[in-house]
Design a protein that fits this description.
The protein is an alpha+beta fold. The chain has one domain (31-104, 111-151): Immunoglobulin-like. It contains one helix and ten strands. Strands 1, 3, 5, 6, 7, 9 and 10 form a seven-stranded mixed β-sheet that branches. A three-stranded antiparallel β-sheet has the order 2-4-8, with no helix packed on it. The longest helix has 21 residues, at 2-22. The protein starts with a helix and ends with a strand.
Length: 153
Amino acid sequence: MRVCFLMMRILLLLLVVVIASGCSEAGSIAGPADPEAQLQPELMVADPAVTSPGGVVALTFPEETTRGVLFILEQRVGNSWAHRFDLLSDGPGAGWKRSWHPVGAEPIAVEDIGVGGPGPDRVPIPEVAEPGDYRICTGNAGENFCVPIRIGE
C-alpha cells in the first residue's frame, strides 16, 4: 500500500513536470505571425526605414497591392522573427485612427476591409519598442509580405 502511494506521488510529480515544460514562460520568444510571409520591398516601401520608438512609418505600395488595415511588427531574433505588436493603419483615409497593440494583450477587433492604391498607409511605432531590426508585414492580405525597418534609440 505504501509503495502504491509512493508510485502515485512520483507519477503525479512527473505529470506536473511534463505539463509545465510544455507551457511557454513569460518573455519567451514567439514566432512570426505568418511563417510564409517574405520580405518583398518591391511590393511595400517603408519611409523612413530607420525610425524611433513613438515614430510613424508611411508605407507605400508601388504596385498598388490590395491590403487591409492590420500590419504586424516583428523583431529579428537570431535567424527568425518574433511577432511583437499589431499595428492598425490609417490606410482608408481621414478619420481612421492609427494604433498599436502588444502581442498577448487583450484581443483587438480589426475591420475586414480592403485598401487599394499606392498609399501611404501610416502605422505607429510603439513607444515601448526596443531598438533593433524589425519588419513590418501585412496582417490580413491574401498573401502577406514584409518590408524591413530599423528602430533606433
